Amino acid sequence: MIGSGYGRALIAASLAVLAGGAHAAQCGSSSAGFESWKREFADEARGRASPAAISALMGTSYSSATIAADRGQKSFKLSLEQFMAKRGAPAIISRGRAMKRSQAALFDSIEQRYGVPAGPLLAIWGMETAFGAVKGNVNTLSAVATLAYDCRRSAFFTDQLYAALALVDRGVLTANTRGAAHGEIGHTQFLPKNVLNYGTGGSLDNASVALNSTANFLKAHGWRAGAGYQPGEPNFAAIQGWNAASVYQRAIAIIGAKIDGE
């Protein structure tokens, strides 16, 4: 395993390349060009990513499951009521309240450290993975590499891919890591760059680590202890930082408030 200083250097170098517009590997919209793109990307990454990370990249394959998921996010177009019903909001609220009681010491320690109460954390946990029951079964590196190659959001996921390569060096990701279709991992589904920036140490497959990391993310996005988190209130902006879909943001706020007893 290579130390975190090297990982930071990888990210800094990759961001510099992206900022300078030097990314030359040709994106595509089908599987046909993926292997060629991968070789070009690997050539560009040498010197900024370790041999072990490059080797992991070269072992990736085009993920049709990832592309299907990326093109099929229809639930975000539902009304708030439809979305909450589809995501099982009543069950999340019921179980969330029970977990808030049964794991009170954990949530109290998180709130003391980050200022984030149990409600929104449990809402996110329940919405993302049904409290860890459904974390995904898509190869993580293949998912991120596929989206870096895909022209639709190539720049965003190129950044995520460099972060994933740094996580390979840290031992957080391996060629066999599996998670959600867009490359998210752990109980609350962190993308690679968020693992680097907000992970609090340890595996996000550990619920306590994932919840602390999620609270750290929200605090870094402006969460203020004691302030409200409904639309129009100070902490709603932090929830907006978690997910760009407005229906998802409102659902987290509502479910979180019901878990917190508001």
Average pLDDT works out at 91
Distance between the termini: 46 Å
The largest sheet has its strands arranged as 1-2
Look at the helices and sheets and give the structural class.
Answer: mainly alpha
Total number of distinct structural domains: 2
Highest CATH level, the class of the largest domain: Mainly Alpha
Unreliable spans are: 1-22
In N-to-C order, the SSE pattern is HHHHHHHHEHHEHHHH
The helix count comes to 14
Domain Transglycosylase SLT: 34-229
Protein name: Transglycosylase SLT domain-containing protein
GO molecular function: peptidoglycan lytic transglycosylase activity
Pfam families: SLT_2 (PF13406)
Task: Provide keyphrases for this structure.
Lysozyme, two-stranded antiparallel sheet, globular, 262 residues, mainly alpha, 2% strand, disordered N terminus, 2 strands
